[in-house]
């Protein structure tokens, strides 16, 4: 359909398959095959077709159409298909088909996640998701990075935050039992304790320290019971890791990368972006004036590609927040009193949306609120961490220069009870040819949210895994 709709030269004969969106006046089939947001209009001269056959042309039915592509007589489309042959491939009972030709709530569509990509909004979102994935691989490929597959089942907790899903090899048939006769879950993965990965970073570091520039792009898992519109239990993460690169280089890379992938969709996905933009504008109109965004979706995307990201240290950010009045109540819900407290999303969004009004890279965070592997600064209390904050999203990227000094890393691990045995291979990197290196993690769904203007992370991944959604 997408090819046919952009044809200048009219093909005499066409042969297409797709799903019926609507069938109007026993004459006009709006057909969609997933290749574009647009339907192609197929005109049936009902006098020439069996009435029983036409009755089967219902919303959701799969059909095969042969006909002639002609200039459209009606408004709204350049071309249409004059149908010569109509074959019903798969019926769709209009009484029970869940996706009616009307507006459905996102909640309802989440319950029908297997069919929601038959709607305009979700097909546009998922095409953009695919396009962004391609743009990401393209960027790294063109910049000398190797794609590395980090393991899904692992014995380590990369973030040291204990938010892991355990993996067990117990098959339910002959599970090992403890003395009380209960299943012995401590036997885990063939006798070893393992979990689903929370991040591929530590393994990516090992590859960066031999291949130079690598990235991972795969599913990661967090057993955090947070019910927010920005968290999933299973999400996809992109993690580049580069040898001999410091924190400033990491910021440059992240900014260039984000701009590049967003530029890619602006240039290649304009139809879907325009559709989502209109959807967003309509949604904005239902909000109170004060909460409405004055920017269109495309403007928001260009805002990122055309502005420099503002680089601000954590300490500067805290000073700004302490001296700011964010709203009518002139208070944040979580007050920033002391240096050393972590920022809440309201603070992040204030910095991006109200104060700097551009994407922000916060760096040099207090060591105690960041992961163990980050490079300690000379002040002894901050680490070379960086978070990128985006408008409407908050944190979209988290990264750091890594601690490359064996003794400092060991001390840090000991201070928070991470055993050296567990990470012996990680420590080896610091024993044999250690060097400055850095990387970051981009939460893919947060990028898709930003790119599509969708406000709930459950609506930008095919089958969201959250405490409520794990059925499909
Ligand atoms: O900040 P995080 O936890 O950092 C890491 O995992 C590092 N190992 C990355 C690295 O340096 N290689 O996660 C990175 C990003 C976050 O900024 C956020 O965008 C996303 O991953 N993220 C989530 N996205 C959806 N659901 C969740 N539960 C997420 N947790 C993190
Ligand atoms: Mg983070």
Structure, explained:
By secondary structure, the protein is of the alpha+beta class. It has 2 domains: 2-97, Nucleic acid-binding proteins (OB fold (Dihydrolipoamide Acetyltransferase, E2P), Beta Barrel); 120-163 and 198-459, Bira Bifunctional Protein, Domain 2 (BirA Bifunctional Protein, domain 2), CATH 3.30.930. The chain is built from 13 helices and 16 strands. The strands form 3 sheets. An 8-stranded mixed β-sheet has the order 6-10-11-16-15-14-13-12, sandwiched between helices. It has a 5-stranded mixed beta barrel with strand order 1-2-3-5-4. A 3-stranded antiparallel β-sheet has the order 7-9-8, with no helix packed on it. A hairpin with a 7-residue loop joins strand 2 (28-32) and strand 3 (40-43). The longest helix has 23 residues, at 120-142. The chain starts with a helix and ends in a 20-residue tail after the last helix. It binds 4-amino-1,4-dioxobutan-2-aminium adenosine-5'-monophosphate and magnesium ion.
How would you summarize what this structure contains?
The chain is α+β, with helices and mostly antiparallel strands. It has two domains: 2-97, OB fold (Dihydrolipoamide Acetyltransferase, E2P), CATH 2.40.50.140; 120-163 and 198-459, Bira Bifunctional Protein, Domain 2 (BirA Bifunctional Protein, domain 2).
């Amino acid at each position: 359909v997408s090819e046919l709709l952009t044809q200048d030269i009219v093909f005499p004969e066409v042969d297409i398959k797709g799903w019926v969106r609507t069938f109007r006046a026993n004459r006009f089939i709006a057909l969609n095959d997933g290749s574009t947001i647009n339907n192609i209009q197929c005109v049936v001269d009902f006098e020439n077709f069996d009435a029983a056959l036409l009755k089967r042309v219902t919303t959701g039915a799969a059909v095969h159409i042969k006909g002639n592509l002609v200039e459209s007589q009606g408004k709204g489309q350049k071309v249409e298909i004059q149908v010569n042959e109509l074959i019903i491939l798969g019926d769709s009972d209009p009484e029970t088909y869940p996706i009616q030709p009307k507006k459905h709530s996102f909640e309802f569509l989440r319950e029908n996640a297997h069919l929601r990509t038959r709607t305009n909004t979700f097909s546009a979102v998922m095409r953009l998701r695919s396009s962004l994935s391609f743009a990401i691989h393209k960027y790294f490929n063109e910049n000398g990075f190797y794609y590395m597959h980090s393991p899904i089942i692992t014995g380590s907790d990369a973030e040291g935050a204990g938010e892991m899903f355990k993996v067990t090899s117990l098959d339910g048939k002959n599970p090992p039992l403890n003395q009380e006769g209960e299943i012995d879950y401590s036997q885990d993965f063939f006798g070893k304790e393992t979990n689903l990965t929370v991040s591929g970073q530590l393994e990516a570091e090992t590859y960066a320290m031999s291949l130079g520039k690598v990235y991972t792009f795969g599913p990661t898992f967090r057993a955090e019971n947070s019910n927010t519109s920005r968290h999933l239990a299973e999400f996809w993460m992109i993690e580049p890791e580069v040898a001999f690169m410091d924190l400033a280089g990491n910021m440059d890379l992240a900014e260039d990368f984000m701009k590049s992938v967003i530029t890619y969709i602006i240039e290649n996905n304009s139809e879907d972006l325009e559709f989502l933009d209109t959807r967003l504008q309509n949604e904005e109109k239902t909000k109170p004036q004060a909460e409405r965004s004055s920017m269109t979706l495309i403007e928001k995307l260009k805002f990122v590609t055309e502005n420099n990201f503002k680089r601000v240290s954590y300490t500067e950010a805290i000073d700004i927040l302490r001296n700011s009045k964010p709203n009518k109540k002139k208070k944040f819900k979580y007050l920033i009193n002391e240096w050393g407290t972590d920022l809440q999303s309201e603070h992040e969004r204030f910095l991006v949306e109200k104060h700097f009004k551009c994407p922000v890279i916060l760096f040099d965070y207090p060591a105690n609120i960041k992961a163990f592997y980050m490079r300690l600064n000379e002040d002894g209390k901050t680490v070379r961490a960086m978070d990128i904050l985006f408008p409407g999203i908050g944190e979209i990227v988290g990264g750091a220069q890594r601690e490359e000094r064996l003794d400092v890393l060991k001390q840090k691990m000991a201070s928070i009870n991470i055993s050296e045995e567990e990470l012996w291979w990680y420590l080896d990197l610091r024993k044999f040819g250690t060097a400055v290196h850095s990387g970051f993690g981009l939460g893919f769904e947060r990028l898709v949210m930003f790119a599509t203007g969708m406000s709930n992370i459950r609506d930008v991944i095919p089958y969201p895994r959250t405490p409520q959604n794990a059925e499909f």
